[in-house]
Amino acid sequence: MTKKILFSLIFFFVFTFVQGGPGDPEDPLDRPQGMDKPRVLISTDIGGGDEDDMQTFVRYLMYSDMFETEGLVASPPQAGRKADLLKIVDLYEQDYAHLKTWSWFLHPDSLRAVTKQGATGVGAPASGQNTEGSDLIVARGKVDDPRPLWILVWGSITDVAQALYDAPEIKENIRVYTIGSWNTRQDQAAHKYVQDVHKSDLWWIENDVSFRGMYQEGNLSGTYNNVTYSNNIIGPYGALGNFYKSLKSGSLKEGDSPSILYLLGHLLGHPGDPDDPTQEHWGGQFVKVGDMHYDDLTDEFASDAVRSKMTVAKWREQFADHFANRIKWTTKDNPVPLPVIKPDTCYISPGETAPDSCDVTITPVNRIGKNANNNRDMKFFREHFGFIFSKHGKHYDFKGRRVPLDGKRSPSIE
């Protein structure tokens, strides 16, 4: 089989399953077929002087094909404004022509459609203080969907607090991951409200120290040096990369990125079930301090705080290398066109039998690890995408376990 045909089949099997078809800009929340993408809403104080939020947003956009983006909310405590988010979406649009050849990235207009202004000041929630941003949190939190809405908070918890005040019933449908520390101290009233009123039944990770593992501890030598990585590894590629290296004096910080990595590592087949924060994840490991409340392994200013930082830093080489490969997509087209998704493609669970009406069946297959088949094509695919597909009729799940497949005309790579 030629390499071109092999790559075509790789993209068909994995991207039809993992990514779903290209989204319609008129309906950015249209759920893809196959594996459900995590539903994500971001509350960020992007703008003003908080440039690491901007770096984190660049990373998120480069992985936005893997998430269902339900909201981008400009929140306190910095002078975060909707316009600041939209400026970076404009940069993403410059790279979009290349990106869309590699995967099913959201159209820039789809991102603009879910970008909202949140609060412009801090303080405890109250009647009549709702904003476009907090209203969006409520609306998306009320959606009838078996998947939880992951709310990633990169600034103060102001807009989330207001949403909980207006519609406490959304708690059963949301999961909150906050980057706290300084952000928390900027709106202590909103944080206190959430702690006092909702802590007992709100699924919540409070990351007050582990996030520093993005730029402290672990391997910071060579290409993993914060300045080298920003300028030489990410900076040369695309409008997004060039913008990235202009931030934080040309040094990586990305203090909010562990919230993304917490979900992303699992999607790429790395350790950590997002349902269990006590496990190891790219985005940190936490201890249970309440019924559904999780905190760092150590206090923020503890003498052994390095233990918390290392729960992120220990994975630096993995997530840094993966991002380094992805950013290159901004400067060149994928040499293998993405396939057209046919309506008669069926997605089945391992062991299920496909209906006769199916033209092709796809079953869940993901990354199986570094010791998998080491031939050139598999190595290329693994390093660039983090997923492994079926080969010679053998199928693997995301933990590397062989699974049976009895579907008719099941795809395989010879």
Major beta-sheet overview: 8 strands, mixed
Tell the overall outline.
globular
Strand order of the largest sheet: 3-2-1-4-5-6-8-7
User: CATH superfamily membership of the largest domain, which one?
Assistant: Ribonucleoside hydrolase-like
Residue ranges: pLDDT <50 for 5 or more in a row? 1-35, 339-351, 359-414
| Quaternary structure annotation | single chain
Class of the largest domain, according to the CATH hierarchy? Answer: Alpha Beta
Rg, Cα atoms, Å: 21 Å
> What structural class is derived from the secondary structure elements?
alpha/beta
The beta-strand count equals 12
Classify the helix fraction into a percent range: 25-40%
Explain what this protein looks like in three dimensions.
The chain is an alpha/beta fold and about 425 residues long. The chain folds into 2 domains: about 1-20 and about 340-414, no CATH class; about 35-330, Ribonucleoside hydrolase-like (Inosine-uridine Nucleoside N-ribohydrolase, Chain A), CATH 3.90.245.10. It is about 35% helix and about 10% strand. The strands form 3 sheets. It has an 8-stranded mixed sheet with strand order 3-2-1-4-5-6-8-7, sandwiched between helices. Strands 9-10 form a two-stranded parallel ribbon. Helix 6 links the parallel strand 4 and strand 5 (about 175-180). Helix 2 (about 50-60) runs parallel beside helix 3 (about 80-100) and helix 6 packs across helix 8 (about 190-200). Mean pLDDT is about 80; it is low at about 1-35, about 340-350 and about 360-414.
